[in-house]
Description:
The chain is mostly helical. It has helices at residues 5-18, 24-29, 36-45, 56-66, 71-79, 89-117, 125-131. It has one domain (5-131). 64% of the residues lie in helices and 0% in strands. Helix 4 (56-66) packs across helix 6 (89-117). The two termini are 22 Å apart.
Amino acid sequence: MQLTKDQEKQIKKLEDDNLDHVDLLYYLQNSDAETVDELTDELQDNGAFDVETFYYQTAIEYLAENDNSLHESLELAHDFGFETNKLSSEILASLLATQNEREAYESITSELEEILFSEDLERTDEEIEEDNKPV
């Protein structure tokens, strides 16, 4: 998807303010998606939301900060069919971080759609090319 400098700037800010792991700008610049739904499917298919937490200490800190009762992460583990005797803090933290990243992305999709597809921002290829010329 070809973006204007202004769109790139807005998307980068949206990404920096809301997402911890998804490189939204990269996916947009390398995507043929024509809608946010198509982009979402592409992100999901490429594992863009997947967060893998390594190391016990990092996992414990993440869980303490985001789910100190472990209720949400254990529910996610159950939903994915994990057996409790095969769980670790790393698995629980990874499941929860992945879910949190997906939810953070979902919370910005309408703003992303506005940045990408607003009629006010629709421009011709020539205008985009002119905007992206080096100064």
